[in-house]
Write a structure and sequence with these properties.
The chain is an alpha/beta fold and 284 residues long. 44% of the residues lie in helices and 13% in strands. It has a five-stranded mixed beta sheet with strand order 2-1-3-4-5, with helices on both faces. A three-stranded antiparallel beta sheet has the order 6-8-7. The longest helix is centred in the N-terminal third of the chain and has 16 residues, at 68-83. The chain starts with a strand and ends in an 8-residue tail after the last strand.
Length: 284
């Protein structure tokens, strides 16, 4: 019997592989997906090539050097594993990235005509209250929660959340957040995700706000602004590429009154500096 474990991130996959080896489970394969599906365009999955190309374009815009072909190949490699699996486990935690990874995984499996009866979830959301799976210690992995079968009710819940997440606007997702999905973990992740959208007070979302909170009127290395912003919220751990891309958007000359100005080589975080401008008066 072959079992496949799917997890978000290559470091998470490495930790799981070590644990599985310690348990002498040599017939288990672990696949870590590097894509953080919580950022950039997330399209309904009707064509894997189109889906992969959209993901690749987004990460290239953030400075991640990749190609649609390379992105599609990673999905293809995972697809080959799950197609031949007798059992599939998805290991996730409570954060925005983890929960959206779970939703995306289910849709990818559905698109590939995988029988969801062989899918189980290993849910770490109530263990040590860590935001991301790769923050777990080895001891926690060895005493991990029991894998639970994906029920029909859960599948319907995930499908509904996916439909709202991939809708053209945030209205459908906001409505879902108000009525709830039936899962506290998923509801909390959706609420944290919605904070990324511009609010009525400042016109800024949570990611842009955190950049500005860590910047000052003095010129500062961009990496020293991005670094502290990476650990700002246990529910939404945003990576450095996304934060730096947000900083550059805030400083774009196309902005009428940019909140940030930058100097130096803005292709590299350590090669440029940033500071807040006179147009930014602080958060209300």
């Amino acid at each position: 019997m072959s079992k496949i474990i799917l997890t978000r991130g290559l470091s998470s996959a490495g930790m799981i592989r070590r644990q599985i080896t310690l348990e002498n489970q040599y017939d288990v394969r672990v696949a870590g997906c590097r894509d953080d599906f919580s950022h950039g365009p997330l399209l309904p999955i009707t064509d894997m090539g189109v889906f992969a190309a959209a993901r690749a374009r987004f990460w290239r815009s953030c400075g991640y050097i990749t190609t649609a072909r390379k992105w599609a190949r990673e999905f293809s490699d995972i697809n080959a594993l799950v197609q031949n699996a007798d059992s599939i486990e998805i290991w996730v935690d409570l954060g925005v990235q983890e929960q959206i990874f779970l939703l995306t995984c289910i849709q990818l499996l559905i698109h590939q005509n995988i029988d969801l009866d062989i899918v189980k979830i290993v849910d770490f959301s109530n263990v040590e209250r860590r935001p991301a799976f790769d923050a777990f210690l080895e001891k926690t992995l060895s005493n991990r929660p029991k894998a639970t079968t994906l029920s029909t009710q859960e599948t319907a819940r995930f499908n509904k959340a996916w439909s709202a997440l991939t809708a053209p606007s945030s209205e459908k997702l906001a409505t879902l957040a108000n009525i709830g999905t039936g899962s506290t973990t998923l509801d909390n992740a959706i609420e944290a995700f919605l904070l990324r959208y511009p609010n009525t007070a400042s016109g800024l979302g949570s990611i842009a706000t955190k950049i500005l909170q860590n910047a000052s009127s003095d010129w500062t290395k961009s990496a020293r602004i991005v670094g502290p912003a990476m650990s700002w919220d246990r529910m939404d751990l945003v990576g450095d590429l996304v934060l730096f891309a947000c900083m550059k958007r805030l400083a774009s000359p196309s902005q009428t009154s940019p909140c940030i100005e930058m100097r130096g080589d803005i292709k590299q975080m350590w090669s440029c500096e940033a500071r807040i401008t006179k147009f930014w008066s602080g958060l209300p």
